[in-house]
Design brief:
199 residues; mainly alpha; 5% strand; globular
Length: 199
Amino acid sequence: MATTAQVWALYDALPRAYRNMLLLGAFAGLRPGEIAALKRSDVDWTSPSIEVRTQHDDAELKTEASAGVVPIPADLAKMLEADAGETFIVPGVFGRGVTAWHLNDVWATTRATIRALPEGFRIQDLRHYFASLLIAAGLDIKVVQTRMRHASPVITLRTYAHLWPDTDDTSRAAVADVLSARKSPPGADPEGSSSDSAD
């Protein structure tokens, strides 16, 4: 997993025509083929969201669940629009869009310049960063499954269960909150006198 600092270092190191590749992977969870295929017409700029419809060369998506709408914040929409091409969100140097192979080639060159980045860090691994961001923000399994566009919550859990907070600690905290909310300790008399003890 890359750190947030490393993700932004990658963004800064990428040629401007390819920076949206990182934004779409790390902050919307798109796969490389989906990134290459994404067009301006697939983005709702006023109520910001991305509709994933296809992969590069109109190839079918990985699963039926891969198709869907990903809500994005307005700030991300502005960043995407600033560097988008006339037709494609990642325009490439000639403005005609890119192939997934081309994205990987640019990525490999850029990745080599980032210090301490996990070895072999792929564009696809930006999806893992996106999932970790959602989980750290407290989103539940169903929401993460939907945003990741997984076919089943089993897939989400199998891949990311280790990122959710420890259930022992969270259940302790839930009970502790209820106990601490009591105005008087268990067994105490409301008038302040202690209860009778057994002989």
